[in-house]
Input
Amino acid sequence: MMNKPVTSDATELQSGFVGAAAQSAIPHYISGHYHWAYLWPPGVWFFDHLPIINCIVFGQYRNMVESTLAHITDDDRTGATVLIASAYGNLVTRLAERLGDNPLTVLDVAPVQLKLAERKLTEAGLREKVELRHMDAEALEFEDDSFDTGVMFLLLNEMPPEARQRALKHALRVIRPGGQLIVTEYGELGRKHFLHRFAPMRWLVMRAEPWLDSLWRSDLAALVADCAREVGKKIDSIDNTLIFSGFYRVKRFRISK
Output
């Protein structure tokens, strides 16, 4: 069964995905800084090629996808899953395949990103298995406890701190007790990794990702725990997988009341 939005005036879009978010509601940090990467059609076409994606993440895209999917099964342990913001590359199709008969919902605030996901799913013969929703990660329209699993893949680093907190609160709100939130992200800023120590590279990365520094310097587990408390839940256990010597990480949070 597909999850229904809380709002009753959700509109059917021409491309076949639904949601109440409007084009004008695209957050300023996307329409401003990231327009060229996520909204401009030539940019969307360019960045959705695996060699380009892999270059951007220093050759670690496959490792990040595999480490994310390691927490996904095709049985009831994973259950109904939501990918909070679509992602370039093959994560959407790999996730749909991995889930088997478990339902998958993919949402994004940018219609062009949903159209891209729809095309890839259609080409893979997986379109009927996935619900695509036009929705802002900062204001999820689902009821509380709608999903068993939530996935955020390289999303939080692109959000200002306040938006990051809102997105986490909504993600935790819609995941059932006993469920899991999987966050694939940059690792904490350290002193050992050469990309952390090499100042010109840090400057270059932060030019492309201006809100990464605030995530680099935060305790992600503490942030998620704080957000969980604010929505009446708590974190019982945390799994942490380091990738590329900790430059990236996959953290899984188990959630309870």
